[in-house]
Write a structure and sequence with these properties.
Layout lengths: L9 E2 L2 E3 L4 H10 L5 E5 L5 H11 L4 E5 L6 H6 L1 H6 L2 E5 L19 E3 L9 H7 L2 E5 H4 L2 H13 L3 E5 L5 H11 L4 E2 L16 E3 L2 E3 L10
Amino acid sequence: MIGAPASGRIASALTVVIDAPDAMARAAAAIARAPLIKEKVDANDPEAQIRAVRAAAPDARLIVDPNESWSQHLVVALQPLLVEQRVALLEQPVPAGEDEWLESFEPTVPICADESVHVVADLPAVARRYQAVNVKLDKAGGLTAALALATAARARGLGLMTGCMVSSSFLIAPALHVARLSDFADLDGPIWPREDHVGGVADEHGFLHPPAAGFWGTA
């Protein structure tokens, strides 16, 4: 119905949550084979956190997500570190209501909007401040709206990430159709709950396999 081929295996980020740097290093080492790692950081000691994860997973592409915890000063000050540590994407470093200053800032690493973008109507302001957007079905209002957002963002020259909240495979199955259009996928939502639906998506060292035939989207 959406004119898309069946989804295949994709690289999808595995997450290292905020902790002491040594604990984050151990968590990163356990998933170091993954092609893409997303690490959550805060404003307490992000340099040590980033260095610890990179040292433990030297080959993975790295997304750093401060979850709106950084200040303008910290974003500017950490630009050399982000380049040195080969960070591929910086996700929503400052609060969504305090990002106007990004319109005159030229980052050395692309900055991705998350909380600052929900639907297509947000794009005019977002495109002046960010280099990429995180499209989530939860925020956009479903698959149709998420595809519209992804298409409109691409038309503005923005990079794309497909993300999710903690969720079951019933959300991730349609999100895969947005992920195939994206530069980054962060769809590890079903990994965190104790149980998922039978036949759902499956992670294999950072590669996400689509659900079983008939799980979603078929009669």
